[in-house]
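Researcher: Please generate the 3D structure of the following complex. Treat every line as part of one assembly.
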Amino acid sequence: MNAIYILWLRQIKRYLRSKTRIIGSLGQPILFLVALGYGLGPTFAKAGQGNYLEFIAPGVVSMSILTTAVFSGIEIVWDRQFGFLKETLVAPISRWQIMLGRTLGGATTAVFQGLIVLLLSMIFGFRIETFLLIPQMLFFMILIALLFTALGSAIASVIEDMQGFQLIMNFLVMPLFFLSGALFPLPKTGILRTIATFNPLSYGVDGLRGTITGVFNFGIAPDFLVLSIVTIFLISIGSYLFSKIQI
Amino acid sequence: MENIIVVKNLVKVFKKIKAVDKLSFVVKKGEIFAFLGPNGAGKTTTIKMLTTLLMPTSGKIKINGFDPTKDKHNIRKSIGIVFQDPSLDDELTAYENMEFHGILYNVPKELRKKRIEELLKYVELWDRKDSLVKTFSGGMKRRLEIARGLLHHPKIFFLDEPTLGLDPQTRNHIWSYIKELNKKENITIFFTTHYMDEAAQVADRIGIIDKGKIIQEGSLQDILKKTKKKNLEEAFLALTGHQIREEEAGPNQLFRLRHNFRSRH
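Model: Done. Output below.
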């Protein structure tokens, strides 16, 4: 238990100490809120879809959780390169404890980053009906964060250096975001719908947006089930891959 | 005296390159053992196998009675390690690095506090305990790593070139501490170094490894007698030759080495 706690605490401390990273990673969400929220807003309204800022705010919050989560998972690669990984690998604690501690830590920072973006979007004019929605919103934010931190950790357990970093950004994080219904309403049928069905982020965005608007794409139960099952699956896979790391 | 490290016919092959080739030796409990060899001889690979970081291709290892292929957990509890390259978290303070280690190794809170203070004072970092490690010099980082490796009072302390790049003052300081610890707590010390004078002064027994095999083993006197040389450096050069070696390659670098080799020929 203590081991999980200290691994969690380490992630939090590192996050809070990297102020430039916190602020730096707010650039993209702000850009999306301003450029798309304000830019596409009138078109979206004309198409009879309502307030676009209202629509993309949950999507942009999900995106910032997604990127923070994946990258805090991938920090294992940093640790490998800077040597700290060895310190955890030779410690007499089970590999799943290491994985769980790191995942919880990374997920906490991702949720925190999501909350900052949520606050920012409120400054830009986003509103939720009642603050009673917050616990359920937080619940979905935590699920998204856990899932993608676990995904990042699993990937980091198999890639050996930072060369793979850009690849992951362009071929994983961006597609996950763009093909999730974060930016546009998912069509009822067709190829895009099919792809989105296999994208776990779709369920996260849907859960978060549905909580706020009351209208779900997949339904609250499927959202919850898919997110939790995939998370458990990824944590197990990640622990297994992590236990196979040799230096 | 009982053997705390037993290595028998140990082999490690990286993609057809034999880094360790039928290596056999023993280290007795409470002994200071120097593991010497030129670059690329297989020292670090051997240490990684002894400390559960790398699985052997074949052969037998017993550390404190445990087999690293089966009982990693018990080995991890019995050893402390100072790696060749830094393994600290730069974004944490010296104290936080120590505390992290203490908690991972399950050292109870009061004892942990006491030992961290003792150790940091000993390596003269107590007044810098709240500074981030990234502000430390190379020597300070080394001292911190040594302090950290001792925090859980290991039975065997592995040090892979612990004094590399340190000034003579710090080197002396570190060795006098390690020797004291060896006497007082009966901790077995297993270390590698490129400073022959260091090995000659500190070690009870010396093993010289080259091309993955032990080529000479014994006390300083034994080795000097067998090689008919005046000092360890001469004996070492007589045994391993004067040729300059390629740097030791891990699994990552190996690919690059082979790649370079191919493009050159």
